[in-house]
Amino acid sequence: MLSSSGRARVLSMDNRTKGTTTPGFSITCQACGARLPSDEWTWRHACGGTLQLDVDVDAARVNASRSSTVRGLARFAPVLPLRHTPPTPIGDTPLSLEVVEGVRVAFKLDYLNPCGSFKDRGAYVTVARLAELGFNSLVIDSSGNAGVATACMGRRLGLRVDVFLPSSTPEGKKRLLRLLGAGLHEVEGDRMAVHAAALAATRGKAAYAGHWWQPYFAHGVKTMAYEVIEVLGRINMVFAPVGAGTVLLGLHRGFTELRSAGLMANMPRLVAAQAEGYAPVCADLGVEPEHDERSHLADAIAIADPPRRREMARVVRETGGFGVVVSDLEIEAVLSWLTDRGYIVEPTSAVPVAAFFKALGDGSVTPGTTVLIPLTGTGMKVLDELVHIAGT
After folding, report:
1. Which residues face 137 on adjacent strands?
2. 220 CB contacts (<8 Å, ≥6 apart)?
């Protein structure tokens, strides 16, 4: 049973950087241009358009986050759309550098976040915002990782979380959701069916917090870009796994803010990496599929028609990027390559790495380039699947 909106129990400590205030921010419909109230929870405009959230960021705010003695995402309080930033161990994940055929590859190890994926970042901002708006219940649809991250943050801040997910979701993720006390609702069908079931369940009684639509999630993910630039200063290309687009668009948001604040000279080229059978953004970018196959490994990005499809294609084009579609055979090969180097990740995390090798092979990536590849999800939740793939 979903509980109605009310006052949530929120951790009292606020790690907002001393001397800074909540930044101004605005929410706008990308379809019709209407401006929405920022003090209300709206995940989609009445016209059906997706929403964009813009935060007022300048160099002083970015530098305040860099100089903060607070660690985790709370140190980004000066650039987040939150009044309160509860303490958290999320963020500050390692950056591992490899040289591959003369290309400097920076792996952002976001699978080392507390709940095992980059989605901890988006869940932090989303749930913290719902808490300060007074909700005590939320609904999310997920392939697993977003549900786990949201359930963990909801438990921490005192919000009930109901997760709708495909019945085919790996058992390791389901067990984590039960451990975290989430209401678990398994749905037969694909991610579009799960999405529809989650929306039907809210019925006005709980906030819908699915990351496909609501604009707060990207502002958690953008902190990944902030962390990378603190270490590297400059990158040339980013290979991002693309399903709903939260990695791609979150990184783009972060890089855009850093450039507008004068702290980045150039925008990196964004490359959309998708799996066979689930590559609508690549199709929009003119990439023809090589095979008539459908991926069974990249379950976390198996989304046939994401709401922000046009937005993703637009930012890839604007940055001079391109799309790459990879097969399950290519994913399997890269999983072995990653495991040999000590990166234990889920199959979806191998998609952008496989795309990188494909682009390296056709000359789209050249020696001397610095490439960022986020490794987004831990393999520890899907060990049975990894063992099966490895044939051991």
Report:
1. 160
2. 73, 80, 120, 121, 122, 123, 124, 125, 126, 250
Give the residue among 182, 304, 174 at the shortest CA–CA distance from 243: 304
Cα separation, 324 vs 279, in Å, equals 9
CA angle 351, 357, 362 (to 5 degrees): 125
80 CB contacts (<8 Å, ≥6 apart)? 23, 55, 73, 125, 219, 220
**Under a CB-based contact definition with an 8 Å cutoff, are residues 221 and 230 in contact?**
no
Token digits of residue 212 = 């496909």
Residue 175 lies in a domain: no
Residue located via tokens 């150039």: 266
For residue 232, the model assigns a pLDDT of 96
The phi-psi region of residue 286 (left if phi > 0; otherwise alpha if psi is between -120 and 50; otherwise beta) is: left
Residues 182-212 have pLDDT tens digits of 999 999 988 888 888 888 887 656 799 999 9
Of 13, 250, 317, give the one whose Cα is nearest residue 108.
250
Cβ count near 278 (within 10 Å): 24
Distance between CA atoms of residues 110 and 122, nearest Å: 12
Paired tokens of 197: 């079931």
What are residue 101's phi and psi, to 5 degrees?
50, 45
The parent domain of residue 107 ranges over: 95-116+216-390
Return the CA Rg of the chain. 20
Residues of the chain with pLDDT under 70: 1-20, 203-205, 392
- At residue 213's C-alpha, the angle toward residues 348 and 275, to 5°, is 25
Q: How far is CA 205 from CA 7, 83, 162, 365, in A?
A: 14, 24, 12, 49
How many CB atoms are located within 10 Å of the residue 297 CB? 24
Q: Is residue 232 domain-resident?
A: yes
**Cα 315 from Cα 363, distance rounded (Å):** 22
**Which of 353, 337, 347, 334 has its CA nearest to residue 377?**
347
Asked if residue 87 belongs to a domain, the reply is no
| Alpha carbons 264 and 344: distance in angstroms, whole number | 32
Q: What is the CATH number of the domain that holds 369?
A: 3.40.50.1100
The model's pTM: 0.93
Q: How far apart are CA 241 and CA 107, in angstroms?
A: 13
